[in-house]
UniProtKB/TrEMBL annotation:
GO terms for cellular component: plasma membrane. One of its GO terms (molecular function) is cytosine transmembrane transporter activity. It comes from Mycolicibacterium senegalense. This is Permease for cytosine/purines uracil thiamine allantoin. The gene is codB. Keywords: Membrane, Transmembrane, Transmembrane helix. InterPro entries: CodB, Pur-cyt_permease. It is found in: Membrane. Belongs to the purine-cytosine permease (2.A.39) family. It is a multi-pass membrane protein. The keyword Ribosomal protein does not apply. The chain crosses the membrane at residues 52-74, 80-100, 120-138, 150-172, 179-201, 213-234, 255-279, 291-319, 340-360, 366-386, 398-416, 422-441.
Length: 453
């Protein structure tokens, strides 16, 4: 018998067929993920539950690493100032996007469809989904590399094990991601404190305040530091709707985001910054505030705790990234989140095991400067210019503003590195979209399918 179930609320995806019957039955047991429709009010979750999803994402070793690199280049005082500026920008950016998601219940792809068009959203969603799957592969590869360096274990086998565990975790859905977020943060805080105390030794942490940096003449600028802080979560921060759509309203969606930016993010950054400033980092110029070796060197019970910490900590960010990618590609392909979790998880794990992940960082970071205009366009279109929006299959104004903002960011990246790529991208993209929003459609201007003149 042919099984057909129309996916409610989303005209952009295909219906279920008989091939999806078994998946639909299994998903009802694990919980509906609402990949292709807004989360109904009856399925929304508490502020604590939604906050737990986000809190465990930025409170990770990667945040400590980048914060340590910033402090190594700028010194503790200037470095922390750059970190705070970047955190506050993220707070406003992700918080506003989360407000939109909590208000509508829509994931990122559905939100993007309202702005970029019923066909145009596929370009934006595919771009960001591919980026976060790249980060999934990168972070999964880091598990094997980290434990290889600290414990001497086989990197490929550990990476494979990590990939399988992270795919299984993501497959369970938003509930599992919420709980891994709680566990990750519960582990991070005490172990981070222990690492800082060990790094300080008998001298106390007061000496960190006078740390002037160690990069010397090769130190990067304040603007670059702000970009690093922002870009670390620019991709998933833009896709925050995949998580905060579960909030009961826009206010709780924004509050859940604030629990992550700046609170959770700053905790991880402060740990990494202090480890570097106190002289506890093994390679502050490249590994920044990575404090795993500090824990392992202390021996005893800290060794097994450090191993568990690596899997749980990086598992949290990997599950978030894979979930983002699976939900995003789900709207493009018409498949479910869980089907795509397996497919994309296998692709990412293979890339990680093969070692390809080690080449991802540079291009992922460069592509990351192209992301901020997307979020700004969404915010302006849906909060400021909603009444001026024209229904379109491919809305050209948002794409034009994205291109202009991204172009400004790339020019800044290569020709004015002392400035912040991310800030330039948002300002230029926002100004471009504002100008285009007031531009009337006249003869000779492009009118795309579905857009009214």
């Amino acid at each position: 018998m042919l099984y057909v179930l129309k996916r409610q609320g989303n005209p952009y995806t295909a219906p279920y067929t008989a091939m999806d019957t078994a998946h639909a039955e299994r998903h009802s047991t694990l919980g509906e993920e609402y990949e292709n429709e807004p989360v109904p009010v009856s399925a929304r979750k508490s502020l604590f539950s939604v906050s737990a999803v986000w809190v465990g994402f930025p409170m990770i070793m990667t945040s400590a690493v980048f914060a340590g690199i910033v402090v190594y280049n700028l010194g503790f005082a200037s470095g922390m100032a750059a970190i705070l500026v970047g955190d506050l920008i993220l707070m406003g950016y992700v918080g506003t996007l989360s407000y939109l998601a909590g208000r509508s219940g829509k994931n990122f792809a559905l939100t993007a469809a309202d702005t970029f068009g019923t066909k145009g959203f596929r370009i934006v969603s595919a771009f960001l989904s591919a980026l976060v799957i790249g980060w999934f592969a990168f972070q999964t590869g880091m598990v094997g590399s980290t434990l290889n360096l600290s414990m001497g274990w086989s990197a490929p086998w550990i990476t494979l094990l990590a990939g399988v565990l992270f795919v299984a975790l993501t497959f369970v859905g938003i509930r599992a991601i919420s709980w891994i977020g709680v566990v990750a943060s519960v582990l991070f805080i005490p172990l981070g404190v222990v690492a800082v105390v060990l790094a300080a030794g008998n001298g106390g942490i007061g000496s960190a305040l006078s740390y002037g940096g160690g990069a010397g003449a090769s130190a990067f600028s304040f603007g670059v530091a702000v970009t690093m802080v922002f870009a670390c979560f620019a991709d998933s921060g833009t896709m925050t709707a995949d998580f905060t759509r579960w909030a009961r309203n826009g206010r709780e969606g924004a509050l859940a985001a604030f629990a992550a930016f700046p609170v959770a993010y700053l905790i991880a950054q402060l740990a990494g910054a202090l480890v570097v400033a106190l002289g506890g980092a093994a390679a502050p110029g490249t590994a920044g505030g990575d404090f795993l070796h500090v824990l392992v060197s202390a021996g005893g019970v800290l060794v097994p705790l450090a191993i568990v910490f690596v899997f749980v900590n990086l598992g949290s960010v990997c599950a978030h990234c894979l979930y983002n990618g699976a939900v995003g590609f789900g709207n493009i392909t018409g498949k479910t989140m869980r089907q795509l979790t397996i497919v994309l998880g296998v692709v990412g794990t293979v890339a990680a095991v093969a070692g390809i992940w080690s080449y991802f960082a540079t291009w992922l970071n460069i592509l990351g400067v192209l992301v901020p205009p997307i979020g700004i366009v969404l915010i302006l279109d849906q909060l400021v210019f909603a009444r001026r929006r024209a229904t379109a299959a491919l809305a050209w104004k948002p794409f034009a503003a994205w291109a202009i903002g991204a172009g400004g960011a790339l020019l800044t990246h290569f020709y004015a590195p002392q400035l912040s790529d991310a800030v330039v991208a948002m300002v230029v993209g926002g100004l471009a979209f504002t100008a285009l929003a007031y531009l009337p459609v006249r003869a000779g201007q492009p009118v795309l399918v579905g857009e009214t003149a």
